[in-house]
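Researcher: Please predict.
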Amino acid sequence: MKQSPFERPTNHYDEQLYLIDEQICALLKQRKDHSKDNLGFPSEDAISQWATKYGLYEDYLSSFFGTLRMEEFFRPRVEPTGFRKHIPVLKSVEIDERLYSITFIRQYENASVINLNVDWDGINDSPHMHEQGDFELYFGEQYDCRQNGGSGSTGYFKYDYIVSPPLPDDFSGLELVVKEYSDHFMEKPTGIEFVIHL
């Protein structure tokens, strides 16, 4: 899922705002440093008090603080280029009647692409049971591994991940740690965590 480049909404800018805007950036950096990247979210009471005190809308402040939690989403992503080959993996783990599998890795010159498949007996699924958690894949500190979309249907869901730099063609011995979260911010683990030995 390629990110669209940001388009400036207007060419107008009041240069008198420059120092204020720079102070906002400095405060954002200070807030991030103090939180140690665990930003949290202000209470409803705090948002209500600040809205009243500074003449702002509560929903506006809620949206602002919500956006602060999404910094990782805006980090530049590697777009795979220069397809090289498919490498079979055929590894799986079964937990609570769900089969988690990786069948192959797509190798590119600048990245690897992995599909994590989740299969279950979906015969008795209701239409609302397609809600899935999000999975974090981890190969080690040297690899950036980010979800790049997914899709599914009754009894099946597939998650796509881009790994950079690319994994070695001989990845035997590598361990892939998979951890499920119930939210998109990866803050609420479900307790499902497993290792796939490649």
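Model: The radius of gyration is 21 Å.
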